[in-house]
């Protein structure tokens, strides 16, 4: 493999060239890449088989092996994802807020690509095609560092894409994969400020925290969600039960799943048993404080650690509070800035919750599971930012752009 | 001094309270603080005298002592700055792009404060009042760490402001100063991800690089500007000469001053001597490549280091190129992503330069000295971002905000 520095230089060159391309050129390249993924599915699946074999040898859990496997449907899904990205508007080139200053200077703000984006991710090889689609559409070059479990699959996917880029006359360095799985290279990547404009980690909490703690390149933190639902004293019980059941059990391993409940004490005695009945249909373990346990004997005790835990499992914590203020304080203390919901029929409580909860997405009377670029109507998603700078919440193509001030003068000098 | 952790906790509490304030309350607090700075100028100047005495003892250069000195005019300037911030629109609370999704969810994007901002800066104590004004207006709490040279002045200014906040019923922890000048505390501050949402360094390249290299808290990089002016073969010579003279000499110690020239070879012989005549009026030293030296014997040789140097002095580098492509490549290689200008009468060259130069601000036929929040019409400036994420170029109040998605539902669950 080439050194990372060489990869960085190549990426920077490719980014400068991509910044000059038009949307038709980029869309054609995306279509060609999608076609190539379909045409060369045998090659990709042969490489994927090697990863699966190694995974079995390493006694990987069946659920993980399933995530790793590139079935026909998943390869078609990767191609379909690229075709969908083609349909989206060009995120690049628009000049907004062009205004004339008193001295005659015309100053406008133009949307431009970020430049070089590095994405560090785990297991699922379809992220490789997704990441390529979003970065190329937005005129960026990407350096990918996937998990070692998927190295053969990722190498094959990137090779198919680069071949198709060459045929379209696009610099194939627009997408580069770090094929050496040595972890030291991740550290090196995180310090390549000269060549990389932003790093986006995608994966578990360990991976994300490693990048946040060690990268000198600007990071967009994605992911972990300790999402709460607060059932207000003025909630519709049936709605609360339906939303909680959905947010906890519709898909358990995702960052927008609900991990913790907060229930008003006035309704605890009546609502909690009804809720537990429902959650027990999916064998959800409920860990509660003393008042929660007093309301239903099937609830087991929660420890302090439970309030801050993202289970990603059929487990949920439950705290009883005496007011909406206490609920908001609890949520703002333990949440991860992802998605929080209130279930209420009270107008003032709904507004107070929306105003005072500090998170990327705050809901009234809806499931936290909607925090997602597709559900928000962005047409694509590169991840969900849980930090406050640059992008917050689901990130679509817009999050992969920056701006440049363009200034038209006719000889102005500063007084 | 309290521990930084306690300061962080207090700042977070203050930020949560500020997020609930209305603009009238925040504007009244800003006016009260400005009034207090004027009313207590004697106290501030007495503290400032201690800093000046210490500076003289430490043989600080007269120019630096001048920057440190809080004359009547400068204190009035600080107050005036706060009154001006009062006049600006509230950057907080607007909900944009509220749209209904097919499932009936109403999803809008609301502007909210970032939360807790840390600002690490050097010498000039008036930055203390500026930083307070911008962060309070945008509903943020701020933790300030100024230079040790100005510690007495900064302590006095912050004390005057916190007293006035108390009188307005605002939590005085909205502004806190790290009074212990131990450098280890800067390192600690840079790792307080739990309490600080963003760090903005303001000062020299050393300070900024220390923060960029070591902070785990997200950073907005500001500052260093190796700004170029390219004199195209189709330039108006008089305009080029005026703009370069302005950009180099109008104020030398600032990040938007011009540090490097690029001149087309076709006009080098005629234009360079005329330019050198003008720059020599201010005794500017010109360091050039061989062709530049051939054009004028007053030009001294440049080394490779010169192309990347921000002089902040009466020195400028000069390179001769054979095409606009070569000029753009040179500038994109050595610039710091700040401000770059082309002087030309050619339409295509102007557009090409605007499109292909990778910098926060790109000018046609104007001085780079205009890159500034006030000149851009933002009414205020917290610094000039030279990174690509979150904010790029001059940062006004808007750069101190983030967004929160607010979602109104009526029982939606995800299918």
From TrEMBL, chains A, B:
Alphabetical keyword list: Amino-acid biosynthesis, Cytoplasm, NADP, Oxidoreductase, Proline biosynthesis
Coiled coil: none
This protein's record includes keyword Metal-binding: no
Pathways per UniProt: Amino-acid biosynthesis; L-proline biosynthesis; L-glutamate 5-semialdehyde from L-glutamate: step 2/2
Leader sequence residues: none
Transmembrane segments: none
Keyword Cytoplasm: yes
UniProt protein name: Gamma-glutamyl phosphate reductase
Gene: proA
